[in-house]
Amino acid sequence: DAKARYVKFHWKPTCGVSCLMDDEATLVGGKNHSHATQDLYDSIAAGNFPEWKLFVQVIDPEEEERFDFDPLDDTKTWPEDEVPLRPVG
Hints:
By secondary structure, the chain is of the alpha+beta class. The chain has one domain (6-87). Helix content is 24%, strand content 20%. The chain has helices at residues 22-31, 35-45; strands spanning 6-13, 52-59, 86-87. A three-stranded antiparallel sheet has the order 1-2-3, with no helix packed on it.
């Protein structure tokens, strides 16, 4: 149908997400300040190309009032249990 919708887009890496603890970040950053870029180059050179999947969350503007926050506020995350992620690509 031709109704307006509110949509949030999510790009999720297929390789998952990993984070460094504070002490690890200090150590790694001290040795190579562009370690993430280096990791990307190394992964591509090894044939492990970066890949993401696209998901959307969609709500009807009439549903806006059911949230205890402004869903149009970019700093807010829509709860996935109420507005599930839909794979689109």
